[in-house]
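Technical annex B. To support the medicinal chemistry partners, we prepared a structural model of the target in complex with glutamic acid, based solely on the information shown next.
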Amino acid sequence: MTTFSRYRGRFAPTPSGPLHFGSLVAALGSYLDARAAGGQWLVRIEDIDPPRCPPGTDTTILRQLEAFGLHWDGAVVWQSARGDAYQSALERLREQGLTYPCSCSRKQWQGHDVYPGWCRDGPGEPGKPIAWRLRSDLGQRPIAWPDRLFGEQRFDPADLGDVVLKRKDGLWAYQLAVVVDDGDQHISDIVRGVDLLDNTPWQVQLQTALGYPVPRYLHLPLVMSPDGQKLSKQNLAPALASEPAAIARQLFQAIETLDQAPPAELDGAAPAEQLAWAVAHWRVERVTPAAERPILSAHREEN
Ligand code: GLU
């Protein structure tokens, strides 16, 4: 495993809606970790699924980050412009026998927890539209890594299934795009919500196959709504504030949500002042993992 000479972090929102309080906390966590390490912090817009991304939402997100004082380094990257890089990565995987075309529909394998790999030796129904799947059973197994908050992790990617890398409709899937972009952008540290923790084994498998070094991982607890649901666009998480006094209040709450115990006087201070304090005092160990071993996410099955 190659080590990185410098810290480079990133925030990688999917522009399916404006940022909400939960995504602000994820952005803030990755920003603070990067700045506290004297590192760079990049923003990448993960707009590979146009039907899910209303036009203009990317701009809204970038304005929101700026309003909260979360200024990024370098140029923003849009995944919608990166198709050639994903195609060449898919070809490299194909040459290694690590991806295969699959004609199965989700309906055909309902009742199974994960896709059972029926098309591994060739598409079951040649001539039908195909998705490209990862051979999760080949390559490095199990995948183990130390999460900086949740501790030692160990998964057999084969138990997670042969995830889709390119969809039947020709769109790129998250797992491949995120690995190629993190690799090409030399991201050393991935800080994101714990709902992506069990996606990490596929990503490490892909990094290894494509020759990218494996970054360090820090998964952050999710912000829950009072009824115990993950805050999300779907359950109408509270919108982010847009006027200065409310922004200052919400930023303070976000720092508190990361268990950094900001002093009360900081409440309502200008974002730059709050962030300067939070960078200087950032301690990952303060963040309380909601559970020792989180209850994990959907496996982003895309078809
Ligand atoms: N784009 C993904 C999301 O908004 C996050 C990707 C990542 O941080 O790896 O859920």
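Notes passed to the chemistry partners:
The pocket of glutamic acid is lined by residues 12-14, 46, 178, 192, 196 (CB under 6 Å).
Strands lie at 8-11, 40-45, 77-78, 99-102, 131-134, 143-147, 151-155, 164-166, 189-193, 216-220.
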